[in-house]
Amino acid sequence: MKAIIFLLLISMGSVYAQDISGSVSNITKLKGEALSTLGSTPYRAKEHQLIKDYFVGLMEFSVQARDNSKMNRRLNSYLASGDIAKFCSDILLDTKDWNQIKQNCTRNRFFLCSEEVNEFPEFKKTLSGSLSPANLEIFKNTPACQ
Amino acid sequence: MRNLALLILFIPILSWGQSTQEVKINLKQVVDKVSTENYSVYQNSLRVYQAKESITVARMNLLPRLNLWKLASAALEIFAGGPAGAAAGGFSIVEDIAPFLVPANWFRVSQTKLFYQADLQGYKALWANEVLTSKALYHHILLDSSLKDHIRRSQVDLEKIYQIVKVRETFGGSPQKVSQEIKIRLLALDEDLRALEVLISEEESLLAFLMGYPTGTRLKVTEIDMPDYDSLEHLDYEDFEFRAVDVSPEVKQFEYFIAAADYARKEVSYAFLGASSLSRGLNGGIFDNLPVQSGLGFGTGASIRIVKSQKEILKVQKKAVEETVRRSLRQLVNNYNLDVDNYKNLKARQNLTRNGLQQLYQRIQFGENVDSLQLVESSRNLIEADTSMFSVMFRFLNSEDKLSRLIFHGDYTKAKDALSRIQEEKE
Fold first, then answer.
1. How far apart are CA A129 and CA A126, in angstroms?
2. Do the domain assignments include residue A4?
3. Domain carrying residue A93
4. What pLDDT band is residue A85 in, cutting at 50, 70 and 90?
5. Which tens digits make up the pLDDT trace of B21-48?
6. pLDDT reported for residue B184
7. pLDDT digits (tens, 9 = 90+) for B89-103
8. Taking the model in full, what pTM does it have?
9. Where are the alpha helices (DSSP H) in B98-176?
């Protein structure tokens, strides 16, 4: 009986991990699409939408990780057993690319992309705010997460 | 009695002091004052505050409520109605004792949150419109003041021409009717000047109202830095289209309404577990007429179809708003580009007419015989060219500001700060 319960818990844990890894791979895909716009200036509706989708995806992930206690637990256990550097490089843009996107978004002194682009540092802050002290410590010291 | 007499004596002095209060303002102050003091903006910010509080009301209403009469009648049913009465009495007070067991109440809470977000967007749109109107008024006051100065200068120039023509007429070098023409023109300029003074006064009064100043406050607007008109380039509609629609609070407001429609549908679907008596909040009126019946009845299917079609209506309205935003943007870009093209022409026209008049003056100074009608015509052309130039210059300012309003750029990024400032004061 104990063995069954144990197996059940293990399988539930792996379902949660799959849940997070599904979200992460979705954001990774969106990030790749956003990065693909770097060479397609001036941006038109299609490029704007791709960029927006990534930032909105990241925002929703961060907010859920902060506000949803289940999701928060799953994320922290996912990170505790995984590689935080890879997680960050998978879902977060590096500062150089973000600046490049912002530059491409500006024409005739007007900022023309979705407002979420400017809120990227806020999303990172929200994400780091949802981490357990141990994960946060690693997050802070990982260059890919900065 | 003596105090009353003193009061009567001082009231006119005090009111006179109020009516002549002069305030020097700049554009930044216009944005700040409209954000905090404008009557409509302030009212709307209070509505947002109410919507925010409505979320707390809806959440708290999920907790048990004390309704003594209902408890008493339920108790009567329980004790006097046998086993069936006990069950009926127990269930009848579920909505009061355990409102959280009624799913419709949870859906109402979710709707209240969405309506609060919709209210926030409504506030943002109204605030931006009031700021846009106030800034446009500010620009108009500057334009009309420039025109007024220009008319005064033109009067001085025409007066000179009038004197020259008068002398010529005296010596028979010019037909009599020319001086009359100039006099008529001078009188017309006088009328223009008076009309402009009244117009400026009305514009100042309206701006003072929009900024929340008491009636009678006289505003003195300070000059602004004009853009480098020679460096202005054509705008491309495609560049701005995404941003204008994406950031539009009017569109976002409908997105929240559409999201709320899903909860309204769930409310109908789960009505067999009880209907909610909680308010949806201030903006919830759009769903108030939907037929939500308490309990599962034969009309449930039709009710669901009505809610679905309500969602469709909202989608159509959202689409209409998006198209309106696009249309406004296209119109703005077309007019802006037209002005960019016309600016070069107008500048050339202004230089040519100025040089033409200058040459005529020089010829008069050298004693040449200049046709008086030509002189009058040249002066009129210069006045017209200058007036058109001023109008285009200020139209650029307004167009840029309208564009900033459409894409929420520059001053229009301050909506959040304006609201939080008002709400902080409230809390």
1. 5
2. no
3. 16-145
4. confident
5. 888 999 999 999 998 888 888 888 888 8
6. 86
7. 555 555 566 666 677
8. 0.80
9. 103-170
- Determine the residue among B113, B231, B243 to mutate to test chain A binding: the one whose Cβ has the most chain A Cβ atoms within 10 Å: B243
DSSP H helical segments within B236-299, as ranges?
237-247, 249-269
Contact B247 A113 (CB under 8 A): no
Chain B environment of A48 (Cβ under 8 Å): 242-243, 246
Closest in A42, A52, A110 to B407, CB measured: A110
Q: Is B23 helix (H, G, I), strand (E, B) or coil?
A: strand
A4 — contact with chain B (CB < 8 Å)? no
Average pLDDT over residues B105-119: 85
**Rounded to 5 degrees, what are φ and ψ at A93?**
-75, 145
How far is the C-alpha of B245 from the C-alpha of B267, rounded, in Å?
Answer: 31
Give the whole-angstrom CA distance, residue B33 versus residue B29. 6
Q: What's the token pair of residue B324?
A: 């309106």
Tell me, what DSSP letter sits at residue B211?
A: T
CA–CA separation, B180 and B191 (whole Å): 17
Residue of A nearest to B245 (CA): A114
- pLDDT band at residue A57 under the 50/70/90 scheme: very high
Indicate the number of domains in chain A: 1
Q: What is the pLDDT of residues B337-372, one digit of tens each?
A: 999 998 989 999 999 999 998 888 888 777 677 777
Residue B221's φ and ψ, nearest 5 degrees, are -85, 140
> Strands (DSSP E) along B170-291, which ranges?
218-221
**Which of B238, B247, B409 shows the shortest C-beta gap to A44?**
B238
CA distance to partner chain B, nearest, from residue A76 (Å)? 28
* Domain-embedded: residue A9: no
| A 30-69 residues inside an 8 A Cβ radius of B | 42-45, 48-49, 52
B238 to chain A, any CB pair closer than 8 A? The answer is yes
Cβ-Cβ contacts under 8 Å, A112 against chain B: 239-240, 242-243, 407
For residue B340 the two structure tokens come to: 């960019």
Tokens linked to B345: 């022409």
Nearest to B148 by CA among B201, B225, B213, B75: B201
Output the average pLDDT for chain B. 81
- Asked if the structure places residue A1 within a domain, the reply is no
Chain B closest CA to A53's CA: distance in Å? 12
Please classify residue B284 by burial: count the beta carbons closer than 10 Å to its beta carbon, then call 0-12 exposed, 13-18 middle and 19+ buried.
buried
Distance between CA atoms of residues B419 and B416, nearest Å: 5
Chain mean pLDDT for chain A: 83
Q: Does B247 touch chain A (CB under 8 A)?
A: yes
Minimum-distance CB partner of B409 among A42, A48, A110: A110
Give yes or no for residue B300 having a pLDDT over 60.
yes
Min Cα distance A42 → chain B (Å) is 8
Residue A104 distance to chain B (closest CA, Å) = 11
Question: In the structure, what pLDDT confidence band is assigned to residue A4 with cuts at 50, 70 and 90?
Answer: very low
Q: Is residue A90 part of a domain?
A: yes
- Spatial separation of the C-alpha atoms in residues B23 and B212, rounded to whole Å: 12
Domains of chain B: 22-54+102-426 (1.20.1600.10)
